[in-house]
Amino acid sequence: MINLLAGNNFSGRSFYLKCYLDYPEFTVQEANNNKANVFRDNRKDLYLGPIPDNFITGICDNVKDELFRYNKTLEQSIGKEIEETFGFERLFKQSPFDLSGGEKSILTVLSFALRNPRSLGIDCTLEQLSLDWKHKVINILSNLHIPEIFLIDNRYKEIGPNLINEVRFTPIIENKPFNFKIDNINSSLYFPQPGKTIKRISIENLSFSYTNKKVLENLNMELLPGNIYQFEGANGTGKTTLSKILTGLLKPAKSTRISINDIQVDLYAKPGQICGYCYQQPDDQIFNSVSEGELYDPFSTITNNNINKIAVAEAFGIKDILNVNPLDLPLTIRKRLSIASILLYDRPIYIFDEPTLYLDDENAKELALIMKKAADMGKIIILISHSKTFVELFETINIINVNSINYGKYYDHA
Questions:
Q1: What is the DSSP letter of 188?
Q2: pTM of this prediction?
Q3: Which residues of 77-116 are buried (b: 16+ CB within 10 A; e: fewer)?
Q4: Is 19 exposed, middle or buried (0-12, 13-18, 19+ CB in 10 A)?
Q5: Pairing outcome for strands 201-210 and 257-260
Q6: Which tens digits make up the pLDDT trace of 142-170?
């Protein structure tokens, strides 16, 4: 059984977990003076944080070596099961850094678990997985001989009580990781910009491949203003790839035709000017030395941009940290900052890749209300989210199944 540390953002869950696992920079005494080490064996305690890239060694040049780097003896006994469960056979020869975000999460969790730790702490690492893959990971973890497994996951209610043992978390220490004020997201303070709108965007015969790996083939779809869409599919099926094509970050095959209001356009020639794209990991998006610099649209012609900036910052509870270096902020606040910076842009299309990653339920609900407001103003909202509870907050949502897109098919429904 896996022990869940349940609580809201800034309840002290991560701090306690790091203390308990003797993570560097923390001491056991800070977390629990009554911890009895005498009853624990001499195996290592391991902590796995929310950004999987930070826990890939960079030493191994393929997934299989990375997975079994710390315990080659388990390769024969469990390697085939992992291959078949996650389809890793096609991935074993790839570089770990070529995997999708969800695949990296699975790789890091399993590689840590196969090290045979005494205690394993998994801090939000599984949040970006589809629910079926999350269940598969938890089932494998439950069958390993790890005395203690702790999980922090803001979407834990979707997992089900039979797989985890919920521990309602009450901090035993005063948690003050920063000296500035942070408020919750407040949708009533946000006003979306009316700005540019379009009648429709049409996509015909879209195909895309990474080197020798075909990801999308013969995709046809139409996006209409005022609608909210969800790109649905298992991890690694091409949802993020499709989003980056629409943003202009990736160039599709020559056979592809993308039209805005029936006029063919080359999105790759003008990246970011039609579509605002919020990355899954905020650190992939943030690049300024102060947070205020993130709330700036280089293509904006709006004269009152500073007023909009303050309004958006207040809505996302970050107005008091605008002069702080973003990398000095907690991860959940960096996530909010990255979302706020995209919503400040005046774009016809907004794409949000796992927008609720690291956000608790209260803040996720407020974020959904903000997205509804943007759609009501004529924006096209595209979500990539494995959170069933978040998607269900939208009364009407158009589902685009990217699993089907891979084979030239497409459907949507409300």
A1: G
A2: 0.84
A3: ebbeebbebbebeebeebebeebbbbbbbbbbbbbbbbbb
A4: buried
A5: antiparallel
A6: 888 888 899 999 988 888 766 677 666 55
